[in-house]
Specification:
InterPro entries: AurF/CmlI (IPR025859), Ferritin-like_SF (IPR009078), RNR-like (IPR012348). This is Diiron oxygenase. Pfam families: AurF. This protein has 304 residues and is mainly α. It has one domain (68-300): Ribonucleotide Reductase, subunit A (Orthogonal Bundle). It is 70% helix and 0% strand. It contains 14 helices and no strands. The chain has helices spanning 15-29, 34-37, 62-66, 69-102, 110-135, 145-157, 160-183, 189-218, 222-242, 247-251, 256-264, 267-276, 278-286, 292-300. Helix 4 (69-102) packs parallel to helix 6 and helix 9 (222-242) packs parallel to helix 14. 43% of the residues are buried. The structure holds fe (ii) ion (2 copies).
Length: 304
Amino acid sequence: MAIGISRPQSRTSTPEDDVARRLLESSAQLSYDPLTEVDWETPLDENFHGASPEWSTLYGTAYWNELTDAQRKALTRQEAASVASTGIWFEMILQQMVLRDIYAKDPTDDTFQWALTEIADECRHSIMFARGAKKLGAPAYRPHRVAVELGRLFKTTAFGEAAYAAILVAEEVLDVMQRDWMRDERVVPFVRTINNIHVVEESRHMKFARDETRKHLARAGRVRRQIHSLLIAVAAYVIVTSMVNKKVYANAGLDEERAVREAKANEHHKSMMRSSCSGLMDFLASVGLLTRPALFFYKRAHLI
Ligand SMILES: [Fe+2]
Ligand SMILES: [Fe+2]
């Protein structure tokens, strides 16, 4: 569907507007309606994984080696559902932060209209993740109470680069996993479609988040940059540690205590996270957000 993005002749366009206009054009060319694109009808085939097994929090542990193929598949299905549920949690946070950011701004701006487009994308994504998690046979996975309350505070107060860099971290961490899952024939087809839709639409969001982060940082002083770099790192830590809910193990029929213990010590999983987040860390370093206090949290979250 071709939608012309018209602009009043009198306004001079800013670099941010150029980015937003290109994103709007891209969105008009390629966006999805998950309600019709995803196969919701075919019953779940338990011969498939929910995620690439290499991304399982137990892959490479002694416990993983003891599991049957069916148990491994049940586990990755619960893990994929947990990641989707955590995705809903931070999509709700970011929708509110973006909405607060554009409150009472100029609606004729492409940036304003792009921001609303992104919120609309996220709204569809959250419905898609909710349906996907349900179809995977998972209960409601919600983050730890402390994470929920920290998220409540953050979404109500974060602004500028703190909001956009935290959005970027969440989107990048999801993106690297979903790129693998969407191509993986061991993953159940409807989950691959969900991941494909998300990867395509999020690539635009990440472009916007990087752009907004740079734009806001250009106006930020030293103290604000120091405080925000730490806040973003703490947000990243909370996001990453909330990805896979502890209850996935019991729901997949495993011994929760042993699984949690081995997952915590799983060097394979930590190195998957580190290598897939190298691009994100390069970006944060390039804009001066990898301060020493921030690095402490990125290391604890195994992102660097
Ligand atoms: Fe999304
Ligand atoms: Fe997004």
